[in-house]
Amino acid sequence: MPTAPAVQEIAAPPRPRRGLRRLGFALAILAALFVLAVLGGGLYLRSRMQASLAQLDGSRALPGLSAPVTVERDALGVPTIRGANRVDVARATGFLHAQERFFQMDLLRRRASGELAEILGAPLLKLDIGDRVHRFRAVAEAVYHHASPANRALLDAYTEGVNAGLAALGSPPFEYALLRTRPVPWRPEDSVLVVEAMYLDLQAAGITRESNLGLMHDTLPPALYAFLVPKGTEWDAPILGGPLPAPPLPGPEVVDLRRQPAKAAALAPAPVREASWEKTEEARWKAEAALAPGSNNWAVAGSHTADGHALLANDMHLGLRIPNTWYRASLVWPAESGGGEHRMTGVTLPGTPAVVAGSNGHVAWGFTNSYGDWMDLIVLETDPAHPGFYRAPDGFRPFEHASEVIRVHGGKPRTLDVLSTIWGPVVDRDHLGRPRALAWTAHHEEAVNLDLLGLEQARTIEEAMAAAHRSGPPAQNFMVADESGRIGWTIIGRIPRRVGFDGELPTSWADGSRRWDGWVAPEEVPKIVDPPSGRLWTANNRTVDGDPLRLLGDSGYDLGARARQIRDDLMALDKATPRDLLAIQLDDRALFLARWRELLLKVLTPEAVAGHPRRAELRRLVETTWNGHAAVGSAAYRIVRAYRFALSNQLFGALTAATVAADPSFEYDLAQSEGPLWRLVTERPPHLLSPKFHTWDEQLLAAVDATIGRLAQQGSDLGQRTWGEVNRVTIRHPMSAGVPGLSRFVDMPPRALPGDSKMPRVQGAGFGASERLVVSPGREEQGFFEMPAGQSGNPLSPHYGDSNPAWAKGEPRPFLPGPAVNRLTLTPR
User: Fold this and answer.
1) CB–CB of 440/159 below 8 Å?
2) SS3 238
3) Are 40 and 48 in contact (CB under 8 A)?
4) What is the pTM of this model?
5) Which residue among 167, 183, 298, 795 is buried most deeply as judged by most CB within 10 Å?
6) Does the pLDDT value for residue 818 go beyond 90?
C-alpha cells in the first residue's frame, strides 16, 4: 500500500475576528494606560494643590518679627492682621500674599518686566518684546534705591515675608508643576514692578489711541477729523462745567460720498465680517473692555445722607480673572502716640504691602481711571547722513542702546536691542515709516512710588489729598470722604507739565519748542472739596473743563452716559443710605439706548414691515418686550444694541476709508463716537449717504436687515437671541485655556449677567466690577463689599470662589471682616 505523501503544515493566516480582537485588546490597554496616566497626573496635581494650601491655623515662625502677629480669618477667608507695628504687619501681609496669591504676583512682576516667556514659553515672546522696551525693571530698581528709609523698611519686611510664606508651603503653587518650573524668590523692586504692571493695564492703550489720532489727522480733511474726534457730547456730566460744543458737520465741499463711490464702498462689510458678525460683536465688546479699564466712584456729603455722615462708593472695573485682582485685608497696629490703634480695611494688591482702596477709620477713598493724558508719542527726526542719530534741541544725538536678554521656556533666549532717546524709548514707526519715542510718566522714577502708604495716617480731606499728591500710582480720579462728613476729589499721581503743545497728536520735539517741563506742583493739581451739591462722581468721564482740563489733557475720556446716569441717581437721593449707593452700582437701566430704540421703531414703519415678516417680528420684540434694562432675558436690548453697532460699522467705515487705506489695521472706535453717529442718523446729510442707497430711510432699513440676518445666524427665533446669550461672564484662570480639561476645575461657572458698558453696572463677558464697596469712614461696620472671586488662588481652598455667588447676584457682604473662623499666630524666630 503506497505511503501517503508527507504534508507540509503551513500556518493559516489569522482570522479577521482574531486580529480585530487583538487590536481591540491593544487599544484597550492603550486606553487604560491613558486613563491611568490622566488619573495619575490628576492625582499628582491634586497632591501638589493640597500641599500648597495656605496655613490657616496654629502657629508658624516668621523670622524678622519684633513680636507675635495674629492672623484671624473670617468665613470668607478675609484676614485681620494684628501686629506690634506697621513693619511687622507688612511682613505678615507678604507672608499671606505668598501663601495664597504668589503665582498672581509672579505674573504681575513678569508682565511689567517683560519676563513672561521665561515661564510660559514662546507664545508670550511678542508681548515680552513690547513690554521690555520700557525697561521697567531698571526703573523699579531706581525707585527702590531712592525710596525713603520708612518705605524701604516696609518693602524689605514685605519681601522677607513673601519669601518666608512661599517657603512655608508644602509645595510651590500648582501652576509651577504644570509649567515644569520653580518660582523665583521675591525682591523688593518686584513690588514696584507690580505698580508698573498697573500702569500697563490702565494706560498703555493710550499709545494706540494717540497713534490712531495721528493717522486720522494725517489722512482726513481737518473738518472731517474734527467731526469724528469730538471733545465730548451732549451726554457729558463733568463735576465742573458742562457739555462742550459739538464740532460742525463737514459739508459737501469737505467730503461728498455721492460723488466718491470708491470711498463709499467701505460701507459694505467684507463677506468674512458678515459671516462672523456675532463673533465680531462679542470681540468688539471684549476689545472695548480691554482698552478701557474703567470704574465708578462717588461720594455723598453728610448733609445728604440718612445719618449725617459721608458715604463713599467705589467699583473698579477691570478684566475679570481668578484669582481676583484684589486681596481683602484689615491691618491693625498700635498708634504711635496717644493710645488706640491704626486700622486699615479694604483691598490690597498682591505684590505690594499697601491698602489700595478702603478706609482707615478717619478717611475712606477709592479710584477710577482718570484718562488724562500721561504720555506722548514723539516723532523722531533722522537724517541718512547721520545714521544711528536723531535730532534733539542741541543737535544730533546718538541713540542709546541697551541689550535686553529675554529668556524663553523651552526655547533659545532672544536678545533685544532697545533704543532710547533723551525723552524715552523708541517704541514704533508710524504710517510714514518715521521712528517714534514715547514719553510716559511710567518711565520716571519720581512718578512711580509706594507713597500711597501715606494715606494710612490721613485724618482729613486735606491730609488725604496731600498724601495723594505725593503718591506715584498711575494717575487716577481720587475720591475721598472723611469722618466729619466732608467729601473731595482730585487727581492722584504725577501730571507732566507740557510746553508748546496739547499732547493730542504725535509730534516732533526736535527744536525744543515742545517738551515736558517737570511736573505740575501739588497746589496746581485740580481739586474739588465740599461742592455745593454735596455730591461728587466720576466714571472715567471728563471731570472738569477750562484750564484744569488743559492741564490734565485728554487720553480718551469715556462717553458721559454712565457718569450722567450716576449723577442723576445721586441727585435723586436726599438722604442716602449705603444700600442706596449699592443700588446705583447695580443700576442696569438702558437709558443710553432708549433713543436708539425710538429710532429703530420709527424706521420700522407699517410700510417697511409690510410683506417682511422678520422685520415685523423684530419690531414686535422691540416694541413690546423692551423693559428698559440690559437684562439677561431681553431680546429687545440685544436687538437695539446690535442695530446701533451695525449702523456705526457702516457709516464710519466710509468716512475713514482713507485712514484704513493708509493702515489696514486701523479701527475707528473712539469713546466719543456717539456724538457724530447720532448726528448722522438724525440730521441725515445727503452728501454723507452711501451711493448704494437712494434715501437715508433705505440705508437705515438695510441696517435692520443686516441685524436680522446676523442675529439669525445664532438661531432662527429672534425672541431667543437674548442679551444673556452673549453677555455670559466667564472668570477664568490664566492657564485654563492652555491645559486641556483644567477649566472645569479652576474657572468660575459661566453666568449670564445683566449690565453693559454705558450704565453704572458695567458688565461684559470678561470685564466688570473687580470689587464693589460702600463705606462711611468711622462707621465701617455699616459698609458693604462684594468681590467676583475668593481670597485664595488655590482651587482646593474653600475660599477660592466663595465670594462669586454674592457678587453675581449683587448681594452685599459686610465691609469689615466677620467673626474669626481660623486663627494663625506668626511668631519671631
Assistant:
1) no
2) coil
3) no
4) 0.91
5) 298
6) yes
Look at residue 770 and give its three-state secondary structure: coil
Q: In sequence order, what DSSP letters do the residues of 779-800 get, joined into one string?
A: -GGG-EEE-SS-S-S-TTSTTS
Sequence-distant (6+) residues with CB within 8 A of 782 are 578, 776, 815
CA-to-CA distance for 669 and 773, rounded, in angstroms?
A: 31
Q: Report how far residue 723's alpha carbon sits from residue 544's, in angstroms, rounded to the nearest whole number.
A: 34
768: nearest Cα among 805, 727, 740: 727
What is the C-alpha to C-alpha distance for residues 316 and 649, in angstroms, rounded to an integer?
A: 29
Q: Is 101 left (phi over 0), alpha (psi -120 to 50) or beta?
A: alpha
How far apart CA 273 and CA 115 sit, in angstroms, is: 35
pLDDT at 29: 57
CA distances from 666 to 206, 215, 339, 349, 662 (A): 15, 9, 61, 35, 9
Cα pseudo-dihedral 797, 802, 808, 814, rounded to 10: -130
Pick the closest to residue 654 from 683, 682, 680 (CA basis). 680
775 vs 421: CA distance, rounded Å = 46
pLDDT of 183-215, one tens digit each?
Answer: 999 999 999 999 999 999 999 999 999 999 999
**Number of C-beta neighbours around residue 221 at 10 A:** 13
Which segments within 316-431 are labelled E, that is strand? 317-319, 327-334, 341-348, 355-359, 363-369, 375-379, 389-392, 395-398, 400-406, 414-420, 426-429
DSSP 3-state assignment of 252?
A: coil
Distances (CA, A) of 64 to 162, 186, 188, 449: 12, 16, 15, 24
Listed in sequence order, the residues at least 6 apart from 234 whose beta carbon sits closer than 8 Å to its beta carbon are: 243, 246, 675
How many angstroms separate the CA atoms of 677 and 673, rounded?
A: 6
pLDDT value, residue 258: 87
Mean pLDDT of the chain: 91
Those residues whose C-beta lies under 8 Å from the C-beta of residue 22, and which sit 6 or more positions away, are: 14
Got the DSSP string for 588-611?
-B-HHHHHHHHHHHHHS-HHHHTT
Among all chains, which residue has been given the C-alpha cell 459686610? 814
pLDDT exceeds 80 at position 261: no
726 three-state secondary structure: helix
Q: 364 near 777, Cβ under 8 Å? A: yes
Tell me the β-bridge partners of 389.
398
Calculate mean pLDDT across residues 336-357. 93
Q: Answer for the pair 303, 534: CB distance below 8 angstroms, yes or no.
A: yes
Residue 79 near residue 339, CB atoms below 8 Å: no
Q: What is the mean pLDDT of residues 511-517?
A: 98
Residue 302 gets which letter from DSSP?
A: G
Locus of grid cell 518715521: 434
The H-or-E segment that residue 83 falls in is: none
Mean pLDDT of all residues in 802-806: 97
When pLDDT is averaged across residues 365-388 and rounded to a whole number, the result is: 96
